[in-house]
Amino acid sequence: MSQIRAFLAIDIDEDLKAKIYNVIRQFKQIDANIKYVDLENLHLTLKFFGDIDTEGIDVLSSKISDVVNGFDNFNIKIRGCGAFPNTNRIKVIWLGLDDDEIVKRLHDELDKEFVKLGFDKDRRFSSHLTIGRMKSAKGKNKVKSTIEEFGDVDIGEMSIDKIILKKSTLTPQGPIYEDLEIFEL
């Protein structure tokens, strides 16, 4: 029985990646130990499955299709910068979404179906776009002030017309993502 590491995501429009990179470039000027997400890997995660059996992908795909059939395409606005768990203990640097009710509803309806398949229910979903992971406290104060400086950054709006089931292969150079199935809204 073979397994793959998988997640469900929304890809980011190419034209917004340049604006996102401008934010990342400001963080890169800080002497800090941050691992940045490659621009081609930028996405908004709806569900991280972890390792799943390849035999179960058809059932999973069917559940995703059933849920997305109830959704029309919608717009999101990428705005704001923050950190998880917070700016005093920075592990993840993220960009947020303005008015993410539809994304949260989509996530919640999907998660309900995934729980029926035996996946753990997400404790608290927070729609965000990870741009970097802080590996140590080096440069923390400057990183914190840069997060605050970009607290209200406006990246722009994009239309969501599909979600994608992706395979993630971990390598020493970073993860490699591969689209397994695309679900049109």
Q: Structural class of the helix and strand makeup?
A: alpha+beta
Q: Which bin fits the share of residues in helices?
A: 25-40%
Broad shape: globular
User: Which parts are unreliable, with pLDDT below 50 for 5 consecutive residues or more?
Assistant: none
Radius of gyration: 17 Å
Mean pLDDT: 96
Strand content: 35-45%
Q: Strand order, biggest sheet?
A: 2-6-5-4-7
- Order of SSEs: EHEEHEEHEHEEE
- Number of strand elements: 9
**End-to-end gap:** 32 Å
Number of helices: 4
Main sheet makeup: 5 strands, antiparallel
What report would you give on this structure?
Strand 4 (74-86) and strand 5 (89-98) form a beta hairpin. Helices cover 29% and strands 42% of the residues. Helix 2 packs antiparallel against helix 3. The mean pLDDT is 96. The protein is of the alpha+beta class. The protein starts with a strand and ends with a strand. A 5-stranded antiparallel β-sheet has the order 2-6-5-4-7. The chain contains 4 helices and 9 strands, in the order βαββαββαβαβββ.
Task: Compile the SSE list and pairings.
Layout: E1 3-11, H1 14-28, E2 34-36, E3 43-53, H2 57-68, E4 74-86, E5 89-98, H3 101-116, E6 128-134, H4 140-149, E7 154-160, E8 162-169, E9 176-184
Antiparallel strand pairs: 1-3, 1-8, 2-6, 4-5, 4-7, 5-6, 8-9
Helix pairs in contact: 2-3
Characteristic terms for this protein:
single chain; 4 helices; four-stranded antiparallel β-sheet; about 180 residues
In short:
The chain is an alpha+beta fold.
